[in-house]
Amino acid sequence: MTAVAPNAAAATASAAAATASAAGVRAAARIVARDDGRGGTSLRVLEGEGPLAPRRTRGSGAEAHVLLVGAMSGPLGGDRFAVDARVGSGARLRIGSAAATLALPGQAPGEARYDVRLTVADGGELHWLPEQLISARASDLRVTTRVDLAPTARLVLREEQVLGRAGETPGRLTSRLTVRIGGRAVLDQELCCGPGAPAGWDGPAVLAGHRAVGQLVVVRPEFARTPVAARMLGEGAVLVPLAGPAALVSAVAPDALLLRRLLDEALAALGPATAGEPAPDLR
């Protein structure tokens, strides 16, 4: 049985269930994908509250597609958002967002938090491809993304951060990304930018004056046999192997459009991402 997106009445009730207080909004979304036993993927759980509204869209082949739709502005100061997505063995899931996420200052004091937890079982595949996160002036947001993969799981993860809107100084943005494969950490990195960040964040060793930064993590079992080789991918992007069946692309650019182009070209250079399709030799 395939679960479908909540209807209008359920969505209204879900929005009312989000906790709003002087300390900000508390909201969470859960997505669980399973192999339907017929060569496709079913969404056993698809639920959200308040500003986090997951919606199923038309899939492709065996892959289910979900969009995260922002039902409210945010995250604002003091908000606490959380997304938990789980992919079972043999299931394939692609998650995107309907628009960019805009971090804004709020009436509540303190930083906002956006916590993402992604879990993929053996033989499962997840594409986590949200739109950009924009850090507006005077905002303060901490994003934590934790990925736990089984040894034969597959992943394409894209993160993009834009520091400020056009002509605007950015807020403070702290982003931590952790990827574990079979319980072993292959990536654990944190970047802090904007007012109050450690000195040097805008210097030549980090962003070098750029206002858009992103990373692409690709995990494929075949990388254990044929690791990618470190190399530049055009101006502003570099590809490096990780300590496992994974590769990392890091990129900086003057704006969001050029950053997306760099990451799209990097993913194309890595070749087909679907199980059973051959990947190019990047040694």
Automatic annotation (TrEMBL):
Principal location: cytoplasm
Keyword vocabulary terms for this entry: Chaperone, Cytoplasm, Nickel insertion, Signal
GO molecular function: nickel cation binding
Keyword Kinase: no
InterPro entries from the UniProt entry: UreD (IPR002669)
CC annotations in GO: cytoplasm
Localization in the cell: Cytoplasm
Pfam families found in the cross-reference section: UreD (PF01774)
UniProt KW Magnesium keyword: no
Annotated signal sequence range: 1-22
Job description of the protein: Required for maturation of urease via the functional incorporation of the urease nickel metallocenter.
Similarity comment text for this entry: Belongs to the UreD family.
Quaternary structure and partners: UreD, UreF and UreG form a complex that acts as a GTP-hydrolysis-dependent molecular chaperone, activating the urease apoprotein by helping to assemble the nickel containing metallocenter of UreC. The UreE protein probably delivers the nickel.
Protein name from the UniProt record: Urease accessory protein UreD
Source species of the chain: Streptomyces spiralis
